[in-house]
């Protein structure tokens, strides 16, 4: 889990994704629509992608992508992020993490 922790670092929003995953694309688009600029790691396009995917699964990310970290904390996959949005909790979370300022 050290690799994931170091990749999340001090970044406000990090999304672990796969280029072929439509849910990853939807979650990324949603977060960008609020003005945030997430760091997106496409696991199928980076050399240690399978190792990172295994770490995400060990952390409880099932399915492994999308895995969204806001404020260096794992916040969930597509269902959880959409649920946060519907309950008007996503934008305040993005603000608290410093990802958006409005």
UniProtKB/TrEMBL annotation:
Principal subcellular localization: cytoplasm
Pfam short name (any one): Glutaredoxin
GO cellular component: cytoplasm
Glutaredoxin domain ranges (all copies): 13-74
Matches recorded under CDD domains: GRX_GRXh_1_2_like (cd03419)
UniProt keyword Cytoplasm present: yes
InterPro entries in alphabetical order: GlrX-like_pln_2 (IPR011905), Glutaredoxin (IPR002109), Thioredoxin-like_sf (IPR036249)
Family membership: Belongs to the glutaredoxin family. CC-type subfamily.
Protein name: Monothiol glutaredoxin-S6
Organism: Cicer arietinum (Chickpea)
């Amino acid at each position: 889990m050290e690799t994931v922790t170091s990749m999340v670092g001090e970044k406000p929003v990090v999304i672990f994704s796969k280029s072929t995953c439509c849910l990853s694309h939807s979650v990324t688009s949603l977060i960008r629509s609020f003005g945030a600029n997430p760091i997106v790691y496409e696991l199928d396009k980076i050399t240690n992608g399978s190792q990172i995917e295994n770490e995400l699964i060990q952390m409880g990310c099932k399915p492994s992508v999308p895995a969204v970290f806001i404020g260096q904390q794992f916040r969930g996959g597509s269902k959880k992020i959409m649920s946060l949005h519907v309950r008007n909790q996503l934008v305040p979370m993005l603000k608290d993490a410093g990802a958006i300022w409005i």
